[in-house]
Amino acid sequence: MVIVLGIESSCDETAAALVRSDRTVLAQRIASQDEEHRPYGGVVPEIAARAHAEKIVPLVEGVLADAGMTLAGVDAIAATAGPGLIGGVMVGLVTGKALAMAADKPLIAVNHLEGHALSPRLADPGLEFPYLLLLVSGGHCQLLMVEGIGRFRRLATTIDDALGEAFDKTAKILGLGYPGGPAVERMAALGDAKAVSLPRPLLGSAEPHFSFAGLKSAVMRAKQAQPPVVAGCCGVGPVATGYSDADIAAAFQQAAIDCVLDRTSRAISRAEGATALVVAGGVAANKAIRSALEGLAAASGLRFVAPPLALCTDNAAMIGWAGVERLALGQSDPLDFAARPRWPLDPAAEPVRGAGVKA
Ligand code: KG4
Ligand code: ZN
């Protein structure tokens, strides 16, 4: 039985966790930076790096105290080494290196995306390789065959925006603030998806790639064209004629679901040998998307695995677990391992026509 200290700092959550190889999360703490970034409507890299630097050491001390342990009882230190905002990644990685050096423990430099990709195995001991993974977060939207630790075959990616990014932009357009995904999901539950007509980019196309830029622009146009709210009278409050913000949110979420189902079912037809359909990453916390995927898996004769909500958004337990998996294979990394702002899971995947900077 081994215990790994996981450290996460690639975006706007600073987190530490102690994970044991029997899948017990002994302790975990997470400090969100929502308050710091809210005034700007998105993550400001400089502010994020500074906040990580302030929070990381108290978080590590906190999880050790929670578990009643010292560093001496830890078998390895796993820190996110990319991809992500370079300032934040460096804070967590340097902290991990310093702890590894001071306590004379192995360092495991974890790919944040691999952390997401393996998180379902932390939650579900029965999940075997290979599985088809829909990885949907703020920066990534990919379909991958997960063939083993460090072994990924990318079947599809987004040619423009990530799905989480589209949720965040929709939230901004609707004035729902930051972070946007959960707010859009809550509002969508109150609306009528049929009240607004929105496009489904790439629906039916042969390759299982994604595109969300056109959907985001259509949300913007729907908001601009929204009929004004009419003042109420005779005891009736103000009435929205046409469609409401909740209708836009519901229509956006339904269009996103239709795209995800169509693209994923296309990938299923290429995922020979997959033991399960798995979803991970921040957007996997969306209950409507989870239940739509569950239906698709059932219709396709596949098991469906989705981690609990707290393991979907960024956290350190998934980084610690990736460390457990790598350590079991005898893998660790040198202390001069350089942070990687870009670090694709499948380096052999061809760049996709139309794709911008996203891996
Ligand atoms: O994995 P994650 O925490 O960070 C990245 O690695 O990007 O994902 C964050 C993304 C954000 O875009 C956020 O809006 C989205 O996940 N998200 C959601 C929900 N919760 C988080 N999107 C839709 N519905 C949700 N409930
Ligand atoms: Zn993430």
Structure in words:
With 359 residues, this protein is an alpha/beta fold. It folds into two domains: 3-119 and 311-328, 2-Layer Sandwich (Nucleotidyltransferase, domain 5), CATH 3.30.420; 128-306, ATPase, nucleotide binding domain (Nucleotidyltransferase, domain 5, 2-Layer Sandwich), CATH 3.30.420.40. It is built from eleven helices and twelve strands. The protein has a five-stranded mixed β-sheet, with helices on both faces. A five-stranded mixed β-sheet has the order 8-7-6-11-12, with helices on both faces. The longest helix is centred in the last third of the chain and has 24 residues, at 245-268. The model has no long low-confidence stretch (mean pLDDT 95). The structure holds 5'-O-[(R)-(carboxyoxy)(hydroxy)phosphoryl]adenosine (KG4) and zinc ion.
**CATH topology-level name of the largest domain:** Nucleotidyltransferase, domain 5
Which stretches of 5+ consecutive residues score pLDDT under 50? none
Corresponding CATH architecture of the largest domain: 2-Layer Sandwich
Number of strands: 12
User: How much of the sequence is in beta strands?
Assistant: 15-25%
Task: Spell out the CATH superfamily of the largest domain.
Answer: ATPase, nucleotide binding domain
Judged by helices, strands and strand pairing, the structural class is alpha/beta
Largest sheet: 5 strands, mixed
The proportion of residues forming helix, as a percent range, comes to 25-40%
Radius of gyration from the alpha-carbon trace, in angstroms: 21 Å
Q: What is the highest CATH level, the class of the largest domain? A: Alpha Beta
Strand order of the largest sheet: 3-2-1-4-5
Number of self-contained structural domains = 2
Mean pLDDT: 95
Shape: globular
